Amino acid sequence: MTALPYQVRAMLRTYGRQVTTARRLARYRRSLVAAEAEDDVRISREAKRRELVGRVAAEIVENCLVTGSDTPVVEEIKAELEEELGFPLLFAYPPEDQEMRIFIVRDESAPEELTGEVKAATFKRLWELALEKVDETML
Predict the structure, then answer these.
(1) CB 104 within 8 A of CB 47
(2) Among 15, 17, 27, 139, which is most buried by a count of CB atoms within 10 Å?
(3) 46: left (phi > 0), else alpha (psi -120 to 50), else beta?
(4) What is the pLDDT of residues 40-55, one digit of tens each?
(5) pLDDT on residue 30
(6) Cα gap 77→128, rounded to integer Å
(7) What are the tens digits of pLDDT across the range 84-118?
(8) 101, 116 contact by CB (below 8 A)
(9) What DSSP state is assigned to residue 100?
(10) Whether the Cβ atoms of residue 66 and residue 58 lie closer than 8 Å to each other
């Protein structure tokens, strides 16, 4: 039996979605355990908003960019980051890896992974942009 390329891509795409969902569930379970351990504390409306903005921004950074979501907020964040850096980026969670990686996409060559301080600065700016965009768009 021969597997056609589109069937392989479809299978890998489905597997990628399952892996992403599993990561989300694991992170959600960890947050539930942590939330149960903390005492209930009264916090201001602004603090609640900042926490919610942080959660949404984290979801965008950790999942939406990697899965190729085409929502306007995700597209704006990615476009602004690429414009600031001056080159197109690819976000990915390689198989068997828990950390997101960022690759530079150059013309007709293999993507080049960002490392070290450049990677840290890019992640920092990505997080700042995500927080700004989510804060602007939240009611």
Answers:
(1) no
(2) 27
(3) alpha
(4) 556 778 888 888 888 8
(5) 79
(6) 10
(7) 888 888 877 777 777 778 888 877 777 888 888 88
(8) no
(9) -
(10) no
d(CA 110, CA 113): 10
> Where do we find the tokens 């795409």?
13
Instruction: Give me the sheet containing 112-113, strands edge to edge.
Output: 89-92, 101-104, 112-113
Q: Which helix (H) or strand (E) holds 139?
A: none
Question: Does the pLDDT of residue 38 top 60, yes or no?
Answer: no
What is the secondary structure of 8-43 as a DSSP string?
Answer: HHHHHHHHHHHHHHHHHHHHHHHHHHHHHHSPP---
pLDDT at 35 over 80: no
Q: List all residues 6 or more positions away from 71 whose beta carbon is below 8 Å from its beta carbon.
A: 64
Closest CA to 61 of 123, 136, 138, 135: 123
Amino acid in position 52? L
Task: Give me the count of residues in the chain.
Answer: 139
Helices (H), the chain: 5-37, 45-59, 65-67, 72-85, 116-137
The helix/strand/coil state of 91 is strand
